[in-house]
Each structure stands twice: as C-alpha cells, then as structure tokens.
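Title: Prediction job returns without error message
Component: structure pipeline
Severity: low
Priority: P3
Assignee: unassigned

Description:
Job completed but the reporter wants confirmation the result is attached to the right record. Sequence as submitted:
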Amino acid sequence: MLVYGDQELCEDPRRRIARLRRRLTDRVPAAPGPERHGALVTLFIEAAELAQGLADREFHASGMDDRTPMQDAAMAVVMELAAGVAASWRMADPPDADPCGALDKLSSLRLPDSVNMRRAEGYSFYCLYPEAYLEAAAQLPTRFARSPVVIGLRSIGTGLAAMAAVALKAPTPVTLRPVGHPFRRELRVSEKLRATLLADPEAAYVVVDEGPGLSGSSFGAVADWLEAQGVAAERIAFLPGHGGALGPQASDRHRRRWAEAVRPVAGFDDLFRSAERPFPSLERWFVDHLGLPVIPLEDLSGGEWRRLYGGSNGLPANPQQERRKFLLRTARGAWLLKFAGLGEAGEQALGRARALHTAGFTAEPSALRHGFLAERWLENARPLTKVTPDAVERLAGYLAFRAERFPAPSGSGAPLAELLTMARTNIGEALGDGAAAMLDCWTADRLAELEAGIRRVVTDNRLHRWEWLRLPDGRLMKTDALDHAAAHDLIGCQDIAWDVAGGIVEFDLSDAQAEVLCRMVEAVVPLDRRLLAFCIPCYIAFQIGYWTFAAGSDPSAARERRRYEEQWRRIRTPAANAG
C-alpha cells in the first residue's frame, strides 16, 4: 500500500539566513517562558534544516559524506542556537552565544543558489521535541561524557545531535546520510572524515536520530561501520526517539545489538507533564490567556477523544497517527490543546485557525505555545450522522472558502501521476488487478492536460463525517481542519477538486446532492469536473491504504477499509464523467 510520503522545501540559503537574522532581532520575546522558548526552538529548527540541506547537497555532489568549511559553518549556527534552547529549557541565564556572528561567517562563504531541505516529521507531526535529546544525553553513563563523538543522522538528526552535544559539552557533531535500501542502509564516508571520526582511540560514540522505524537500519549502518573500524560495541550508544524495539524488518545482528545497547529516551510526558523540571508543565503554558486549570489535564490522544462523544459511538480512529491532544478546563471554559507542530508548521496552523474561525467554520483559537494550539472545546456537540441539505451547503461554503483563502505553491502536493500510481497500487493489492483496470483510462496525456490547470490550495484532506460537529443550536462546525495537507502522507496540497471528491465520498452523496455541492463551489471558485472525476477513485484508493495501515492499532480500521472497498465497487467508470 502507498500512503506515506516526505515533503521537501527548496530555498535559497541566503534567504533562510536573512530570515534567521531578522527573527533573532525581532521575533524572540524577552520574558522567559513557553512563548520565548518556542520562538528559540523555531530558530533552531530552521537553522538545522539549512545545515541538513547544505550537507546533503555536498553529499550528492561528491557521493560521500565529508567535513567541509560550509558544513562546519552551518553546524556552528545550529550549535549556538542549541545552546540558547538548552539555557531556556533550564530557565537559566542566556549563554554567551553569538548566533548572528555565526550566521555572518556562513553567509560569507560561497553558497549554492538553492538547497533542498526535508521537513522533519517528528517536529511536525509526532510531538518530538529537541529538549528530549538534552535530557536523554544527560542520562548516558559517564564513560560517554569523557570524550564523546556525536553523530547525527540526517535529516532530523542534524539538530538533535547538536542538542545532545550541548548536553555532553562535546565538540560540534558530525552528520551522516545513510543510503541504500531502506532496510539495508550503508554509509559513504570520505577518508578525511573517517580520520576525523577515529582520531581519538578512546572516544565514545553517540548516534542520534528520530527512529528507529521498521528496520532501524540507519542506526545499524553507523554501528556496523564503527565496529568495522575497530570500535567496541560498548563504546557506542544510541539516542533514539522512542524506547521500543527495532521493527519487523530489522536484521538479527541489529536486533541483538539494539537489545544490549545503551539508548536512553526522554518522552513527552517526562518533559512537559512533570512538575520536577524548571520549565512549566503543559497546563501552565496558556495561563496568560486562559487562566489556571481547575482540574488536571485530560489526555485525549490515541482515540481517547471518542469517550467524550458517548463512548466510541462507532467512530473510527487511527491512534498511531493521531497528534497529541489534551482537554484543559479553566474558569474560562474548556479548551482543546492539540499539537500543531514546532516551528513554522505551528505558526501556519494558527494563521489558518484564526481565518477559519473568523469565517465561522471552526472553533475559537486562543494561542500557540511551543507547538501546542489552544482552541475552544465545543461542549455538547455531536458528530454529524445524517446528511441534510444544510450540511451540503455548509460543506460547499467551507471548501470554497479554503480555495479562495489558502493558496499553496506549485509542487506542494503529489502530482497526478503519483496519485494514479498510488491508486493502482492500493486497489490492486486490496481488490485485485482487475479492479484497478478501471484506472487505465487515465493516460499520461490526459493527466498532463489536467495537471496544467491545477490550482493548488491548502486542502482539508480530512472531510470524514465525524469531523463535522452539530452544535446544540443547529450550527455545523468543522474540526481538525488545520494541518492534514501537511501530514506525513503523499497527498499534500491539491486542487480543491480533491476536497470536493472527499466530500462526495465521506458524505456518501447521491448524484443530485453531488451536483448541488459542485455548483455551489463553482459559484465561487473554478472546479474542473474532469479533475474531480479523477480525484474520486484516487481518494477512495488512498483511504483504503490509510485504513489498512491503521488496522494494527484499532479494530475500527477494518470496518472503515471495508466501507471504502464497497464505495469503490459502486463508483462509475471515470471515463463517463471525464469528457
């Protein structure tokens, strides 16, 4: 099944440097606390993305990892900002750091016109905080603090390694890009970098990344290489993103090493739900806007939100893919605290939340604090069950508003050819190649014609009926409306036709109702009916893949997959509507 995908940003490094310098002087609040800390972490993440992009560019040019003046200068910026984040986290005095001076040195070098920077999934979706690596590194045995060599695995390991190095008072980390088959990664290291890594025969090695995933082969590739150079296994530690075992695709050798290795982890609850640290706990991040909590936070993550709607109520969930969320009750009412993403991802979500609320489509947002967005909890609301004319009208107005207000750059979502490949793969695996044959009418020429007319917007991408809440006064409000176009999947930002297709499928509209929806949207923004005919089967195929992966974490997923399979069997051949 094809569901997941990574997104990249291409940017002129000089533009990124200028933005970092501007934010350092204009956007960091003076008072200590979550707001200032979040601003520092945003700067840190943006600098680490730049360092990753520059390192990967040189890697692809030479075919191997090396230590270069440009990479050293970029990592110097990251280290300066990591030291600032560490001091803020500890509520200590700011360090004697000079990130602007480090930026000046980097900008004085001959930089490329553009670099590709990968979005770090952990920061954007999975509630991974760089502070966790400060705390995890502090838990390492003392032998790893004597002469540590910190190795970060690109992408996200670029910045995480810097946090570990600050905690260990270690030199600037080396970053590596494991390559090859996802389950059999390997390293390509220059002789100069090899000599640098092995210069101290007594060194201990700390390997830093977000995983492990299905195989843990990126961590394993570094340890394999070090052991091949004569480094004893007991001198290698790992700083991963979770404390679990390697995934099912791991080799026996890697699995044995992982089980025996030193690999401390600091989780989200350890960081932000404990009163033992100087930094305030999560429920106190919004005191200035919402007041003090009157009862303890209620965790609504992992599908637990369904309890507030009368038990599960038949509502499906994919707990492993849900963002962390909590219910905060203060004297000002009930508020949903939801992880919206660290850095720019969270700031963009806040902007959309404000626009959608002003237009009357979503709940009131309050504030963004260090990746968490607070918005009013809609008490006594119930998920939409029956599709009525007002629901179709509301859906049309909502989609037209998004199409008008949230334009997206070209290249910010999967091209149509990738959507078609996804649909063929998912339907073929779920229902057989014969069922996928109905997609054969979408030739490369027809897709190219459709692609030329696409107007990409920040689509909702999650129009499931239970995401619409009926309030006691009869109004319909959209929930979970901010960030699915930037989810960890291959869809991304699409033409509004994708959301119209999603609405038709999720509301199970009749032909007449679908026509009403289309005409209402067309009255405000252009809607290509041929593109819509293409999007409907692709949308269903994506949902089949999504709920297939979800089946391992919640029994409701199997029922959802069957529902979409039945919809696939009912749809008409797209050629009939494609013109």
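Comment from assignee: result matches the submitted record. The chain has a mean pLDDT of 94.
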